[in-house]
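Hypothesis: this fold can be encoded by more than one sequence.
Test: take the structure tokens below, design a sequence, compare later.
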């Protein structure tokens, strides 16, 4: 039987333990969590592994949208640390479709905009996608008009019901 023991200085032991604890706390604070149960469910919509142009077009086709083959815009955007009223409203739209941008504050994400080709009744409609590390974290279907509409990926929430907006 062999017995091997190592005696380290107490000061070194606590220094290494403290450093490990600091690294663990930093990881918990700065690395976003990816809770797969927080992803939207239903209709087998895939929000992950969206890395190529074909993946993005395929994602939109899950909601029956057809788009032009190439995006009209590709850019990096940073989700702000504090949401103003416009961004709060936009995040409410995201929450209604099972997404939440507040988990990505201060993160730089990819924004892709595609022109939708099968939207009835509008001249130009765009599909916007926000992608972070191969995951759809937000997006919308919106009119190109200044005071146009903005919907979630499923489109108008009342598209099969009569218009109930008051006449102006």
């Amino acid at each position: 039987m062999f017995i091997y023991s190592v005696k380290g200085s107490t000061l070194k032991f606590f220094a290494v333990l403290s450093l490990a604890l600091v690294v663990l706390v930093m990881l918990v604070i700065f690395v976003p969590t990816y809770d797969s149960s927080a992803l939207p469910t239903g209709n087998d919509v895939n929000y992950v592994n969206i890395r190529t142009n074909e993946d993005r077009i395929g994602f939109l086709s899950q909601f029956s949208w057809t788009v032009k083959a190439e995006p009209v815009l590709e850019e990096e955007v940073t989700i702000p640390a504090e949401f103003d009223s416009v961004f709060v409203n936009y995040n409410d739209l995201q929450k209604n479709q099972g997404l939440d941008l507040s988990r990505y504050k201060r993160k730089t994400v990819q924004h892709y905009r595609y022109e939708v080709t099968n939207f009835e009744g509008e001249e130009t409609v765009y599909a916007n996608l926000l992608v972070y590390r191969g995951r759809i974290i937000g997006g919308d279907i919106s009119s190109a008009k200044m005071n146009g509409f903005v919907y979630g990926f499923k489109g108008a929430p009342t598209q099969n019901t009569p218009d109930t907006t008051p006449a102006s």
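Strands lie at 73-78, 108-116, 125-132, 135-143, 150-151. Residues 158-168 have pLDDT under 50 and may be disordered.
Hypothesis status: open.
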